Amino acid sequence: MVVLPLSRFPNEFDAHMNAASPGPSPDGSSINWFRIASAATLVAGGALLLSGKRRSGLFVAATGTALALMDQQDLLRKWWAALPQYIDDIQELLNQAEGAVEEFATQREKLGKVLGR
Fold first, then answer.
1. What distance in Å separates the CA atoms of residue 92 and residue 72, rounded to the nearest whole number?
2. 83 pLDDT exceeds 90?
3. pTM exceeds cut of 0.85
4. pLDDT tens, 57-69?
5. CA–CA separation, 46 and 81 (whole Å)
């Protein structure tokens, strides 16, 4: 089992566990505080929910979710663009299910007439 020190994040680890910390990345990016804040808020919301404080736990969890979604704007845009096709597919599936239920109802009526009920 490998224990990761909390002072270094997983994306900063080399292939060799004994190697020194590489420090900041060459492109100049630093720690993503936005992700850390959203993760901490989600964890705090979960802790509040588990401790029985539903209202505050839901509020904090919703805030963490909003922060996480703000961090993932590109992914959210892709999902938003794909959403109409999913809605159309679900609508078609529901129409087929409705047709099957109507067909079943007509067959039931025919069977009831044949059996004299």
1. 30
2. yes
3. no
4. 999 999 998 988 8
5. 30
